[in-house]
Amino acid sequence: MNITEKLLKSDYIYNGRIINLRKDTVILPNEKNAFREIVEHNGGVCVGALTDDNQLVFVKQFRNPYMDIILELPAGKRGSKNEDPLQCGIRELKEETGITAQNMHFLGELYPSPGYCDEIIWLYMATGLSYGEQDTDPDEFLEVYNIPLEKAVKMVMNGEIKDAKTQTLILKINQLKTQNKI
Fold first, then answer.
1. Among candidates 122, 175, 137, which has minimal Cα distance to 153?
2. By the 8 A CB rule, do 165 and 86 touch?
3. DSSP assignment, residue 172?
4. Strand 44-49's sheet: what is its strand order?
5. For 35, 79, 101, 131, which has the most beta carbons within 10 A of its beta carbon?
6. SS3 category, 17
7. What share of the chain is helix, strand, coil (3-state, %, to 5)?
């Protein structure tokens, strides 16, 4: 059975610094036309920096869409669609926490909202950590915390950590540790 849609045209509604919004006209598998509203985003990275004593490095920051302070693993957006995700991860980890890592292990991609957004988040685990000074953006205010991996898993499971990329990366790192693959 063919379940793909065919794109007829795209109309841009908004072009911004972080996102673009377009309205696509598509032909459905049943030959009827439909509209799709798509948010274009350069994508980003999320880095699980794991200390030698099995603690993850977190940041807390205010997130305006939720009007709340969110506990997250260090993350950030790519400067462009062409920026190498690994280099973005290295940069974001250093900017947000002051940490550089000897090793960056790729742990996959995450599609956070595939129903309306083309964003991809690349997931990395950082090990062999060295500490330095944060270099946050002028509009970025955050606090850095270390939380034991085992406690972080419990926080995911009891709903204390709500951020999807952070949940996914914590559970992936924990699974790899449980299987003795890291």
1. 175
2. no
3. H
4. 75-77, 44-49, 121-131, 99-110
5. 101
6. coil
7. 20, 45, 30
- pLDDT one-digit tens code per residue, 140-174: 899 999 999 999 999 999 999 999 999 999 999 99
* Residue 16: HSE in the Cβ half-sphere, 13 Å Cα cutoff: 11
Measured distance CA(78)–CA(92) in Å, rounded: 9
Per residue in 81-115, pLDDT tens?
Answer: 999 999 999 999 999 999 999 999 999 999 999 99
Q: Residues near 151 by Cβ (< 8 Å), separated by ≥ 6?
A: none
Rounded-to-integer distance, Cα 172 and Cα 5, Å: 32
Contact 92, 75 (CB under 8 A): yes
